[in-house]
Design goal:
Layout: E1 2-10, H1 15-29, E2 33-40, E3 48-56, E4 68-73, H2 76-82, E5 86-95, E6 109-113, H3 115-122, H4 128-140, H5 145-157, H6 164-187
Parallel strand pairs: 1-4, 4-5, 5-6
Antiparallel strand pairs: 1-3, 2-3
Helix pairs in contact: 1-4, 1-5, 3-4, 3-6, 4-6, 5-6
């Protein structure tokens, strides 16, 4: 099994942190191999931020793939930039609170996640990336959900312990959206 993922958004949306949490979880709690390749715009916040992640049962030969299995987009520019990189029948996870443009392709699966709205509802906009990560894990089952939450607590909780329950709530809400999308797909 090898899963290729692109995560795209603006700086400050938690794009890199989302990918890092997946990579830490994979390397620290499973026997999977990981490739993580971040790219940044010139600005810290508001500029482009995206990364390429590969999680595999076998050694990984290249840092990125020309086409990806999955795409997580936090904004319209990332949707426009990376939509063509998604394999046919691949899955796009869209933060519909911010990315309001409709994908143009009809040969892909789409999971709509109002991640920023969820983050606001749980109490902190910084939790939007955990809502998106929850949806991704709920849909793909790529990594154990509890391991992700423990990794998030370990990596993020030391500096901001007050965010732990908010992160967990956002992750759980996203997880339910992803799981429901997967179940609906099986029933169709």
């Amino acid at each position: 099994m090898e899963r290729d993922l692109i995560v795209g958004g603006f700086g400050g949306q938690g794009v890199m942190r989302l990918a890092q949490l997946m990579c830490y979880t994979a390397t620290e709690t499973t026997d999977k191999y990981v490739s993580y390749f971040p790219t940044y715009g010139g600005e810290q916040r508001g500029g482009t931020a995206n990364c390429f992640v590969i999680i595999s049962d076998e050694k990984i030969g290249a840092m990125t793939a020309p086409k990806c299995d999955d795409l997580i987009v936090f904004n319209n520019p990332s949707l426009a930039k990376f939509e063509a990189r998604l394999k046919p029948n691949g899955t796009m996870f869209v933060n519909t609170t911010v990315a309001t443009d409709a994908p143009k392709r009809t040969d892909i699966k789409i999971v709509n996640v109002p991640a920023t709205e969820i983050a606001n509802e749980v109490g902190d906009i910084r939790c939007a990336n955990l809502a998106m990560l929850g949806a991704y894990i709920g849909y793909t089952g790529l990594l154990p959900a509890e391991n992700i939450k423990k990794t998030a607590e370990k990596k993020l909780g030391a500096k901001r312990p007050e965010l732990i329950p908010l992160n967990n709530a956002a992750f759980d809400r996203g997880f339910e959206i992803g799981k429901a999308a997967r179940e609906a797909e099986k029933e169709a």
